[in-house]
Write a structure and sequence with these properties.
single chain, 458 residues, mainly alpha, 78% helix, membrane
Length: 458
């Protein structure tokens, strides 16, 4: 991430690696709460499912307001100092502490719900301080769409590694440490160290990236009013939010599916590894496919593939004799599609930012990435929130580690629906938004080089 004009063109592998390693940390943080926090509350702390869902969702509603504010602050810092480093560093230092605190509640029931809610708000706020300016950096690292796609591919490869480490390691650590509160406490300490190590590298290295915010950044309200004219951005964001909600519901349902349908909580790590490991291989393959057939076309194909594979989980997992091998194979197919859902929207995001700059004369990277991360956060919160409400409606009974509770058949069906058919429907619902994005991109300013449904930008 070297400065000056060099930052606008080609970027070396060392610079790419120093930037992308931060996504190992963001992948870890994004995954562990979505995978384990709801289950931790309902099956270890005795928090009722409906209350636990609110605890997971309501702090994320705060993020929807806070992230755009961080984006505007990041733009102001960029104008004042020429860098986005201070906010990045604050988030990198605060997040590990707040993350660990989420899993260290000394209370049960309503007291535990309050503890987790407060610490989750703090962790989400710290994450926003890092994530918003971090996502804004690629638009300033290079002016070339192809180079920005390469940056995104590196970032998503590291994000996939982080997700894989989190989903494979975190449940395993809980099990190895004896499950219950002790298991979650050990897991939280290990993960906090990993977060600190991975987030500090790009936070410190970002001092080499010169920010280019343009003229005086608009205030938050004015920036939002101006952003409303960028219809392509909001169409892309709408699709991304629906897809994030689909993935989040499946993520929240994974430990429940492993426990109540596949034979035990220990299979959570296996299930998750089968879902994420193929995406580590598939990310560069999707990058090559996008270069040949176009990012938007590939994104649409991956969305349809994810919907089909997740719908197939219903008969695969719900048969009388559970076919664990079929479930794991379908999860691997989902992982291939998931890779595209991660890399391609993020490679298209900087194009919408530059298209808006051609329209308004302002490069509002921080404002748009603040809106983007707020939308992503809302989608990731809606997933477990809706899943927990469905569990409550289906009669799912919460418990503590020492006092497990048998579940009704209706509750078990609710678990499986959240892991299969509901994510499939949300993915299908995102396709019209992607088509709207394609139409609106066709009307982008001629000065902005963009791809079409048929191919990649020149």
């Amino acid at each position: 991430m070297s400065g000056g004009e060099a930052g606008r063109g080609e970027i070396g592998r060392r610079e790419l690696a120093r930037y992308a390693v931060g996504s190992v940390g963001t992948g870890i943080h994004s995954t562990v709460p979505g995978l384990l926090l709801l289950y931790f509350m309902t099956d270890a702390l005795g928090v009722p499912a409906g209350v636990a869902g609110l605890v997971v969702a309501l702090p994320k509603a705060w993020d929807a307001l806070f992230n755009p504010t961080v984006g505007a602050a990041s733009d102001r810092e960029a104008l004042r100092t020429g860098r986005r480093s201070r906010i990045l560093l604050a988030g990198a230092l605060a997040l590990p502490v707040a993350f660990a605190a989420m899993f260290l509640s000394p209370l049960t029931g309503s007291g535990a719900a309050a503890w987790v809610a407060v610490t989750f708000v703090l962790a989400s706020s710290a994450f926003a301080l890092f994530q918003v300016p971090y996502v804004a950096l690629p638009a300033e690292m290079s002016d070339r769409p192809g180079v920005r796609t390469r940056i995104t591919v590196w970032r998503i490869v590291c994000l996939t590694v982080g997700i894989l480490v989190a989903g494979g390691l975190a449940p395993a650590l809980v099990s190895l440490a004896g499950e219950g509160r002790r298991g979650y406490a050990v897991m939280a300490a290990v993960v906090a160290v990993l977060l600190l190590a991975t987030l500090l590298v790009p936070a410190l290295d970002s001092r080499r990236v010169p920010a280019r915010p343009g003229p005086e950044p608009l205030g938050l309200r004015a920036a939002l009013r101006t952003a409303r004219g960028n219809r392509a951005f909001f169409a892309l964001l709408g699709a991304f939010v629906l897809q994030a909600a689909a993935v989040a519901i499946m993520l929240a349902a994974a430990p429940y599916t492993a426990t109540y349908w596949l034979g035990g909580y220990g299979l959570t790590s296996v299930l998750f590894v089968c879902l994420v490991a193929p995406s580590a291989v598939a990310v560069p393959l999707w990058g090559r496919a996008a270069a040949r057939w176009g990012r938007l076309r590939c994104l649409g194909a991956a969305t349809a593939l994810f919907a089909a594979a997740s719908a197939a989980l219903w008969p695969a997992a719900g048969t009388g004799a559970v076919h664990v091998g079929a479930v794991l194979a379908l999860c691997a197919l989902l992982g291939v599609a998931y890779a595209a859902l991660q890399v391609l929207p993020l490679s298209l995001l900087p194009d919408t930012v530059h298209a808006d700059a051609a329209r308004t004369g302002r490069l509002q990277s921080g404002a748009f990435t603040g809106l983007w991360t707020a939308g992503e956060t809302a989608g990731m919160a809606a997933g477990p929130g809706l899943f927990s409400l469905a569990l409550a409606a289906a009669g799912f009974a919460s418990s503590t580690t020492d006092h497990p509770v048998a579940q009704t058949s209706a509750a078990l069906d609710g678990v499986l629906l959240g892991f299969s058919l509901v994510p499939a429907l949300l993915m299908l619902a995102s396709l019209p938004a992607l088509r709207a994005y394609g139409r609106r991109r066709a009307a982008a300013p001629a000065a902005v080089v963009v791809d079409s449904l048929a191919g990649e930008p020149s």
